[in-house]
Design brief:
The protein is an all-alpha fold and about 180 residues long. The chain is built from nine helices and no strands.
């Protein structure tokens, strides 16, 4: 079946396709899915997108981003069905976060370099955490290596980056009596 007026190749059309798949006359598989049952596909599509980006294959990147977008939209649709939140709330939330975290663009602060932006971002994130650890919010579901890398990045930004193992252990005189 080709796209038509009912299901044009638009954001709204894609949302209607998902609603139809989940509807009473839709797909039996799609109708029984839950946030939890779809979670592995969200992760898989994210990794497939990363793989396509790594290979520099723009046609495949486009396709994988479409698959990833579907996974996001069906999660939102499930939430809307359950009365948890709406697409409008998701879009508003990310819009507010982007504006809040870019005061050098949407406000009156200055960040002239990428490094200054990262420093400002870290300060804003620390304020948002409200005194929680710099490691707060790292997903427990990250694969081990990705989790370790995220912890290291956060620790380095918090000042725990060392030039050598001696520096990490307090130098060669540490513990000398």
């Amino acid at each position: 079946m080709k796209l038509d007026k009912q299901f044009p190749g638009t954001f709204a059309g894609l949302r209607r396709i998902i609603a139809t798949l989940r509807g009473p006359d839709g797909c039996p598989w799609d109708r029984v899915q839950t946030h939890e049952s779809l979670a592995p596909y969200l992760i898989e599509e994210a990794y497939e997108t990363l793989d396509a980006l790594d290979r520099g294959d723009s046609k495949e990147v486009r396709e994988e981003l479409g698959d990833l977008l579907f996974e996001v939209l069906i999660q939102v649709h499930l939430a809307e069905e359950a009365g948890e939140f709406t697409m409008r709330e998701v879009i508003r939330g990310v819009s507010e976060k982007l504006v809040r975290r870019h005061p050098h663009v949407f406000g009156d602060t200055v960040a002239d370099t990428p490094e200054a932006v990262v420093e400002q971002w870290d300060e804003l994130k620390a304020q948002e955490r409200g005194g929680e650890s710099a490691l707060a919010g790292i997903p427990r579901t990250l694969p081990a290596l990705a989790g370790a890398q995220a912890i290291q990045r956060r620790a380095a930004r918090a000042g725990f980056a060392f030039e050598s193992t001696d520096d990490a252990w307090g130098g060669p005189d540490r513990g000398a009596g």
